[in-house]
Amino acid sequence: MSFEPKILGIACNWCTYTGADLAGTTRLHYPQNLRVVRVMCSSRINPSFIFRAFQLGADGVLVGGCHPGDCHYNTGNLYARRRLAVTKKILEFAGLEPERFRVEWISASEGNKFAQVVTEFTAQIKELGPQQKLKIDELLEKI
Amino acid sequence: MSQAITPYLEMSQAIMEAGGEALKKCYQCGTCSGTCPWTPITHFNIRKLVRYGQLGFDGIEEFMWGCSTCKFCVDRCPRGVEIIDIVTAIRNVYSGGGMLPQSLRAFVGSLAARGNPWSGDQAKRNDWAGQKYPLYAPEMEYLFWTCCTVCYDPRNVRIAKTTAALLNETGISWGLPAAEVNCCGESVRKVGDLDLFARLKQKNLDYFQSRNVAKMITVSPHCLATFNKEYGEDYSVVHFTQLLDKKIKEGKIKPKKDFGGIVVTYHDPCYLGRHSGVYDAPRNVLKAIPGLKLMEMERSREQSMCCGGGGGGLWMEKLKGERLSDLRIEEALATGATVLATACPYCITMFEDSVRTLNVDDKITVRDVTELLLESMEINIDESVGDVCATD
Amino acid sequence: MSRIGVFVCHCGHNISQTVRVSELAHFAAGLPDVVVAKDYRFMCSTPGQDMIANDIREHRLDRVIVTACSPLMHEHTFRKVIEKAGLNQYLLTIVNIREQVSWVTDDIEEGTAKAKALLNGAVYRARLLAPLSSRVIDVNSDVMVVGGGIAGIQAALELANTGKKVYLVEKNSTIGGHMAQFDKTFPTLDCSACILTPKMDAVLQHPNITLLTYCEVSEVKGYVGNFDITVRQKARYVNHDKCNACLACTEKCPGKGISGWDEGLIKRKAIHIPFPQAVPQRPVIDRDSCTYFLKGKCRLCEKVCEQKAIDFEQHDSFLNFKVGAVIVATGYDLMDTRPLIQYGYGKYPGVYHALEVERLFNSAGPTSGKVTMRDGKEPQAIAILHCVGSRDKNNYEHCSRVCCMYSLKFAHLFREKTSADVYQLYIDIRAAGKGYEEFYNRIIEEDVKFIRGKGTRVAPSADEPQRLIVEAEDTITGKFVRLPVDMVVLSPAMVPRSDYKEIARLFNLSTDKNGFFMERHPKLAPLATMSEGIFIAGVCQSPKDIPDTVAQANGAAAEALTIVSRQKMELEATTAMVNPASCCGCQNCVRVCPYGAPFFNEQKGVSEINEALCKGCGLCASVCPSSAIIARHFTNEQVLAEMEGLMEF
Question: Looking at the structure, do residues B122 and B241 belong to the same domain, yes or no?
């Protein structure tokens, strides 16, 4: 059987989660590897969430928020944008392929963009293969 | 005979797969056709071309060669349709089926066999320079990318010479490409032969890589736009007018001779203006010449009218009354100018033809920006370029 | 140990055709702490709801997981269900297996597997949920309406008629807005002033409305039910209490300024009322054109005023209001068409934009309703260009919705008032409204020439000086047309007010990509915004015609009433709180919060959160270096547990 990655999604309630719902309402098909956690705003995402996801064995992490300037909490996603950019750097520093972590701004009306991003990202993660660098089971085995 | 027509969606699909994806976006508002300089004078209709493409209608062949890729419609399109990509894709699909017009066969054949569109001997590419200038070597700053047209076409050879002479004055280090290089491939891409374009491009890329080329100066805006858009991001390419503008501002180039109030109008080549966004550099060069009075035509800059030479138009015969270059000459004459300056070998060729066929060569002369600048610097090139601004 | 009940919905075939629902329920039964797991055809139906309520009682459930459609759909429904059955509503978890599973795949294996993972995550999260109590606050019963156009006027009157006190804020010196500039309204062609001015007057006379013209909101504090709003009263230099509207001042005034009301077509006096039926009938002095303010002497108005109402010493003043709800109805501007050089607006005097033409038709306008152009002549041929800057990715992608109809109205009025030939250059005619298609048919029969093709260029005529040539392709015949005309009318995109960013900032509104204010939900909450207690109406939300604007205004008034008619109200409990034991006092939270909810308690040396202001975004929790801030319902532990559950399968 081919490699089926596990991808964790964290989506803000107002834009990306709603956009994901719209993808469903319009019956757009995309790979089922993504599991989404809903938060109220992308600014709620603590970098430790991302690290924890990789420790738990996520092969990729996709964060979705409102477009910069369109945040339902005005400026939340601007903080998220900066913080997540740094997170990516740290992940890279920790030896993880930076392509495994992606941040996308997807509005409530962009169901097609949501489906497209998930499709692309899943294909990309499949190409990269299983994530072992930060996965805790793997680390324990090594020790 | 039945007048009914059935959509041929496979053809539409083929066009989209060949790069004409934007077909889908068009809502047929007529902005393109109302903007297109050909609509008022020929039966070519760019909107219909897109429409026929959307539904794969028969009869598309009648329209497909009319576009000169001037990009005016693309800039105005309210749907962001990449119309030139559609034209290229349609030509690709149909010329793949052997529908290349006779007039284009010689040019495409020459490109395939000799790497240039002018049936020139590849070994003689640099003959115009007469050993006067060095070939590019990795320690040099710029590769001076001479367009095939300025290497082989007798009128345009002078532009190769004037540009080279000016480059020598700027103090930069530069060299010519080896004779093995090919046409940048712009025109053959626009007539739809994407395979041949890919071959030409690969050979040039091989040459660039072998000599560590990083910076280039082009004579032709067509080469400029193609390198910038189709050759990847490893190259920094400027048009000679941009370099000369900079060098004039730096004081490296100093126009001297006073032109005594000669009225000059400037034609924006489509590939320098709309395709590359360069509007001010050539004007700045002209304005630096003492005693030169620059008059603008009714349609200039972003709204400039095409000469008709792009997209393979240079090699296609057009009937009298269906030539954009003729209309452009009339617009130039209306400004009261005695010199029509421009900065593209294709435009020069088209306008020289029109000036002759319209019998106005006593009223207006067609000059490249470099020819005027060099004259103002009172530098002679080997073969006399002639008194390019003789007016009386 | 918690006792979790899992309820899997089939949603008819919507879920069950790509998720094996009974297998899912069976799977749930084996998960930790799950004491009951069932599947049912329609969980949101009454029998479904009853089943959940019964099981809560029967199995003494303390957590409920409904595995069904999106939480955005039915979270509220099921919260009510469990609350009725005696459970705290925040102990509910929804697993979205319809919009985000069954509808996005056609592979039942994949669908079932993903649903299991999501359900597992939900169980992990549910175990850590805590009951939360909603907050109860007092509600102020007054309303502020911002914007005195037809939307604001309508909303203010509706509210005032219910007995509520309304503050109507208008930045101009008169109310009326764009509608007061029009002459006729489509499709009935009734006179705009005749239907509007009685309403304007009613506002002025209404005992429950406080009219605040020449005013702008400068600060908004507080929250739903308790807004605290500061309004800047701009200096009018006329004491309106003393003025008796004799208007002797406006006759004598030598200062000339551009009349914004008449779209710059004529000049008006420095001391002026914008138009004869202005409400209130009180003049103001425009500093930029007043001779006294420009040159230091004149004061003619002061000399002629018998009431001694002129006051050059007046300054801007600030007024304070406390209200329970706000309606924002700030309207629109027309796009500036000068950058579209192909149309020559601002370059050729024969090119007009739509509002200028409205003023030309208006009997109170600069030409007293006669169609004469800037050169004083009557046009012989007129071209009306639709979709100038709208439906255009290079400018505004949206359709401005009313241009087709007002362009048809213009055609009718031109045909009525002149002998000119009228051309309409259009892409599509959008006549979707009551009586609109009939109006379109009527205009066609009035022999207006329709050219289907977007106007592409306006240029001076080479043959006839003073005339213009309009170029386009008639896409029906494929012919390129050149229309010799005297007058070109542009129908530009309707765009948000130039100060929309400031309004959005003040009221915490989101905007769409064009700058129109975002509604809470495009279909089900079109007048509410993400800011509780702030509602929107009219074109500031998106382009619309007068009937739709009035309908929205009534709707917004009703929405505001649902708040201010209560004395107390509950707020969402998912706010943040500070654990003072771990707060290090760094005040990161105070700096980042867009709502000013966290504040620093100097005495205790820790941050605290004003829960009434908190919207629950969780930003503070994620910037807190010592994890002292807990984002209720989205705590670190809850989110991490859910992730752990998701990644197990």
Answer: yes
- What is d(CA B208, CA B222) in angstroms, rounded to the nearest whole number? 18
Kindly report the CATH number assigned to the domain that includes residue B230. Answer: 3.40.50
Q: Searching chain A, which residue's CA lies closest to the CA of residue C109?
A: A32
Q: Looking at the partner chain, which of C100, C105, C647 has a beta carbon nearest the beta carbon of A36?
A: C100
Determine if residue C644 is left, alpha or beta; phi over 0 gives left, psi from -120 to 50 gives alpha, anything else beta: alpha
Residue C325 C-alpha, separation from nearest chain B C-alpha, in angstroms: 40
Report how far residue B201's alpha carbon sits from residue B206's, in angstroms, rounded to the nearest whole number: 9
Q: Collect all residues of chain C within an 8 Å Cβ-Cβ radius of residue A65.
A: none
Instruction: Answer whether B touches A (≥3 Cβ pairs < 8 Å).
Output: no
The distance of C483 to chain B (nearest Cα, Å) reads 12
Verify cis geometry, omega within 30 degrees of 0, for the bond prior to C187: yes
CATH entry 1.10.287 includes domain C4-134: no
Q: Do B81 and B204 sit in the same domain of this protein?
A: no
Neighbouring chains of A at 3+ CB pairs under 8 Å are C
Under DSSP, is residue B1 helix (H, G, I), strand (E, B) or coil?
A: coil
Which of B95, B117, B149 is a domain's end point? B95
Whole-angstrom Cα distance, residue B232 to residue B80? 23
Q: Are C542 and C402 in contact (CB under 8 A)?
A: no
Last residue of a domain, one of B247, B266, B288: B247
Is A2 inside a domain boundary?
no
CATH of the domain at A85: 3.40.50
Class of domain C143-234+320-331+497-564: alpha beta
Q: Do chains C and A touch (3 or more CB pairs under 8 A)?
A: yes
Task: With CB atoms and an 8 Å threshold, state whether C619 touches A73.
Answer: yes
C104 touching A (Cβ < 8 Å): yes
Minimal Cβ distance to A21: which of C100, C113, C114:
C100
Place of tokens 């009313």: C402
Residue B224 sits in the same domain as residue B281: no
Name the fold adopted by C335-493.
FAD/NAD(P)-binding domain (3.50.50)
> Taken in order A22, A27, A32, A33, is the CA torsion positive or negative?
negative
- Return the HEC string of B179-214: CCCCCCCHHHHHCCCHHHHHHHHHHHHHHHHHCCCC
Domains C335-493 and C575-631 in one fold: no
* C646 interaction partners in chain A (CB closer than 8 Å): 8, 35, 37
3-state SS assignment for residue C572 = coil
Domain that holds residue B57: 6-95
DSSP B17: I
Q: Note whether C513 contacts A8, CB cutoff 8 Å.
A: no
Question: Domain range for residue A31?
Answer: 7-142
pLDDT tens string, chain B, 392 residues long: the values are: 678 888 899 999 999 999 999 999 999 999 999 999 999 999 999 999 999 999 999 888 888 999 999 999 999 999 999 999 999 999 999 877 677 888 888 899 999 999 999 999 999 999 999 889 999 999 999 999 999 999 999 999 999 999 999 999 999 999 999 999 999 999 999 999 999 999 999 999 999 999 999 999 999 999 999 999 999 888 999 999 999 999 999 999 999 999 999 999 999 999 999 999 999 999 999 999 999 999 999 899 999 999 999 999 999 888 888 999 999 999 999 999 999 999 999 999 999 999 999 999 999 999 999 999 999 998 877 554 333 332 33
Residues 28-87 of C with CB under 8 A from A: 70-72
The reply to whether C189 touches chain A by the CB within 8 Å rule is no
> Closest-CA residue in chain C for A84?
C622
In the CATH hierarchy, which top-level class contains the domain C575-631? alpha beta
What's the number of domains chain B is made of?
3
Contact B261/C at CB under 8 A = no
